[in-house]
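Q: My labmate handed me this sequence with no annotations at all. I'd like to see what the chain might look like in three dimensions before we decide whether it's worth expressing. Could you predict it?
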Amino acid sequence: MRNYSIRAASPDDLDGARAVMLDTVYRDFGTGYVPRWHADIVDPAAAYLVPARHTLLVALDPRDHDVVATAALDSRGPAHPPNPRHLAERFPSGETAQLRRVYVRPEHRRRGLARRLVDELLAFAAADGGYRAVYLHTDPAVPGAESFWRSLGKLVHDEREDPAGGQGVLHFEIPMER
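A: Here is what I predict for the chain of 178 residues:
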């Protein structure tokens, strides 16, 4: 088993992190880059490195030190719209640590990287002291996403059950301490 290193991203890691993120939205999500959803991917420094309560983590392959996985956290709760109002009220910005961009290159999956990255994000949120909840949303069409997040948290809303269909995403609350 490889001994991946995980660390807070530095400016030197941003091109590799951006490549992992863009490859994921094109390959796994099939959406490609959508500006209103993915602006943080284009400018991860502004989204995650500059704000004090945000972070971007990277996992590096020990063989070549390439970025092979990412995970980010910011202090923005789910916006309404497009998310249901009750979620925006339950997870307000400033008090909510939202997990984002937990992506692992396919050839590095099933090695515990995503779980390790999430644990590091939860430790970051707990150390901040100002977050009262950890939230994320995921696309259930992405292979393994639903089962992975169900193993870590509580499903609080399934848009597949909405009468109007919503966006079809799943919304989770993750305990800050596992």
